[in-house]
């Protein structure tokens, strides 16, 4: 009798499941944070993560590393009165990564560049004037990895004029934090985007991978590449995104920490595919400093990293890509 009842329950459950199948649908969360927009899209049979959950994560990270919040931990460190701070979990991880990528990029990825960014009008205070050579030289004295000391969980600066900007990888780091949160919630298919920095996990319920279209510079009407991603991050840095015009010439927001002057070369954009968004975020900035051929040669030395470069040569738009980048191309529309 008990066996009959048990079998009946099982059969009834099976029939109910067949009659009312579990439907996996997309849940989309959008908002504004870190001076930009974000979007989180995941597939599930019920709502698991809410906008409040996502916004609370942004709030914690901003309290740590936002230059636009006067009471944030980074703002406290940058103030002239504070030469040392105890790092929280988020800022500690980003500082560790920043020091690592400073070495990997031969010093071009340098978080102490913040005073130069402000001098050239790319800081929170905006543009005021074009700096003179003497002003640039004066600020350069406070730029460099040697001006920082990481001792345990404490970050120290050599003098009060040293200040840091973690925006070069903070958005990529935020994408990684949000992605980890979704995985911890047992969500297996999602895409996270913060200010153009993206991570894709798993496949859609249809079995399709996530597709990302690479943005083309300026008003170019030619189509680009659609990139197929699974458990990968993709980020893009471009000189056409943030700039000012001085004497009829565009001034890039990429500041050379060695010269103190904005970057001037023929590279328009660098797109990087990597396992983590923070890694891709750091590397795409560095590739902007290198000649296109040298940038690709550098990427070829890195495991699990691919890159795509768009640049101008003789007034012609050209492209280069690493040897494995082709593996991610889903569809080419009107190639160069």
TrEMBL record:
InterPro entries noted in UniProt: ApbE, ApbE-like_sf
Pfam families according to UniProt: ApbE (PF02424)
Top-rank lineage group of the source organism: Bacteria
E.C. number: 2.7.1.180
Gene3D superfamilies per record: ApbE-like domains (3.10.520.10)
Catalytic activity line of the entry: L-threonyl-[protein] + FAD = FMN-L-threonyl-[protein] + AMP + H(+)
Cofactor dependency: Mg(2+)
Keywords, ordered alphabetically: FAD, Flavoprotein, Magnesium, Metal-binding, Transferase
Enzyme class: transferase
GO molecular function: transferase activity
Similarity comment: Belongs to the ApbE family.
PANTHER family (alphabetical): FAD:PROTEIN FMN TRANSFERASE, THIAMINE BIOSYNTHESIS LIPOPROTEIN APBE
Full protein name: FAD:protein FMN transferase
Organism: Sphingobacterium litopenaei
Species lineage: Bacteria, Pseudomonadati, Bacteroidota, Sphingobacteriia, Sphingobacteriales
């Amino acid at each position: 009798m008990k066996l009959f009842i048990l079998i009946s329950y099982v059969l009834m459950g099976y029939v109910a499941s067949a009659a009312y199948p579990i439907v996996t649908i997309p849940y989309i969360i959008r908002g504004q944070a870190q001076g930009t927009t974000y979007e989180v899209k995941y597939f599930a049979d019920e709502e698991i993560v809410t906008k409040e959950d996502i916004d609370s994560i942004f709030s914690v990270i901003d309290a740590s590393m936002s230059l636009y919040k006067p009471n944030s931990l980074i703002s406290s460190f940058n103030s002239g009165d504070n030469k040392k701070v105890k790092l929280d979990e988020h800022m500690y991880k980003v500082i560790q990564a920043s020091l690592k990528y400073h070495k990997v990029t031969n010093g071009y990825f340098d978080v102490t560049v913040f005073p130069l960014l402000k001098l050239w009008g790319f800081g929170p205070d905006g543009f005021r004037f074009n700096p003179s050579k003497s002003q640039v030289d004066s600020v350069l004295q406070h730029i460099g990895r040697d001006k920082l000391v990481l001792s345990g969980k404490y970050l120290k600066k050599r003098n009060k004029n040293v200040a840091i900007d973690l925006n070069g990888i903070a958005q990529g780091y935020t994408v990684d934090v949000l992605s980890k949160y979704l995985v911890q919630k047992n969500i297996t298919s999602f895409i996270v985007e913060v200010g153009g920095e993206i991570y894709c996990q798993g496949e859609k319920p249809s079995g399709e991978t996530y597709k990302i279209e690479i943005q083309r510079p300026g008003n170019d009407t030619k189509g680009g590449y659609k990139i197929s991603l699974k458990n990968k991050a993709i980020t893009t840095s471009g000189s056409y995104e943030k700039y000012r015009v001085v004497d009829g010439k565009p001034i890039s927001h990429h500041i050379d920490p060695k010269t103190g002057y904005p970057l001037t070369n023929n590279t328009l954009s660098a797109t990087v595919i990597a396992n983590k968004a923070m890694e891709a975020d750091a590397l795409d900035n560095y590739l902007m400093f290198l000649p296109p051929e040298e940038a690709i040669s550098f990427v070829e030395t890195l495991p699990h990293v691919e890159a795509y470069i768009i640049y101008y040569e003789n007034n012609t738009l050209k492209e280069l890509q690493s040897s494995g980048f082709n593996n991610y191309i889903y569809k080419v529309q009107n190639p160069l």
